[in-house]
Design goal:
Blueprint lengths: L2 E3 L16 E7 L2 H19 L1 E7 L2 H10 L8 E3 L2 H9 L72 H14 L6 H10 L1
Parallel strand pairs: 1-4, 2-3
Length: 194
C-alpha cells in the first residue's frame, strides 16, 4: 500500500497475531526527529502489532524523488512529507486515497489535519510568529506590517525560503498583504521590499 502522511501516524492494517511479524517500510525525516519517532511511535507500534518497521531517512524532496522512482513498483509503504510536497505527490497521482474504513482514526482528526485530497494527514504543526529582543526594541511589533517600519530596517530575519517555514511565511504574507494565503506573487513582492 502506498500512502503519504505528514508524519508517521498510521492506523495499523496489521492484525495482532503471534506469528512472524509483518514488515512496514517508512520514510522519516532524519536526525533528532527520527530518534523521537523511533522511540515514541515506531517502537510502540512494533510491540502493539507484532510488526517490524524499517526506516529510510530522507527529507521531503528526497522522499518525493523516491516515490516517483517507485511509481510502477512501490517498495515504501508510508512516506513522510511536508504539506506542500505531499500535495505535489497527490497532484501527480502518486498517492492512494486514505480509506476511513481501514483507518478509523481519521475521523478523530481536526479538519485542517486531513489533507483536502484525502491522500495524507498531518500529525504535527508549527507556528510562525513575531519575536523580538526587548533590549533592542522599544515599541512592541503588533502586526506583520510593523516589519517595514524604518527602525527595523536591516534588522529583520525571516525563515529560509527553502525550508517549510519559508513556505509558510509566503502564505502568511499572501494572506496579510494580498488576496489570501495562496497569493504568492504579492507575498514575494512584499518579501523583496523587506
Amino acid at each position: 500500500m502506498l500512502v503519504a502522511v505528514l508524519g508517521l501516524a498510521v492506523s495499523s492494517p496489521f492484525a495482532v497475531y503471534a506469528g512472524e511479524p509483518e514488515e512496514l517500510l517508512v520514510t522519516v525525516f532524519g536526525g533528532t526527529l527520527e530518534k523521537a519517532w523511533r522511540a515514541n511511535v515506531i517502537e510502540p507500534f512494533e510491540k502493539e502489532y507484532n510488526a517490524r518497521v524499517r526506516v529510510v531517512s530522507g527529507l521531503s524532496v528526497e522522499n518525493l524523488a523516491k516515490l516517483r522512482a517507485q511509481k510502477d513498483n512501490p517498495e515504501i509503504d508510508v512516506f513522510m512529507f511536508d504539506a506542500p510536497i505531499a500535495l505535489i505527490g497527490a497532484r501527480e497521482g502518486l498517492l492512494e486515497t486514505l480509506d476511513p474504513e481501514r483507518i478509523p482514526n481519521l475521523r478523530n482528526l481536526y479538519d485542517f489535519a486531513r489533507g483536502k485530497t484525502g491522500t495524507h494527514v498531518g500529525v504535527y504543526g508549527g507556528s510562525i510568529f513575531l519575536a523580538y529582543n526587548t533590549q533592542h526594541v522599544n515599541e512592541e511589533p503588533t502586526s506583520w506590517a510593523d516589519l517595514w517600519k524604518p527602525e527595523y530596517k536591516g534588522k529583520i530575519l525571516v525563515p529560509n525560503i527553502s525550508q517549510i517555514t519559508g513556505a509558510y511565511m509566503i502564505s502568511i504574507f499572501g494572506h496579510a498583504f494580498g488576496k489570501g494565503p495562496y497569493d504568492a506573487d504579492t507575498a514575494f513582492a512584499k518579501l523583496k521590499s523587506l
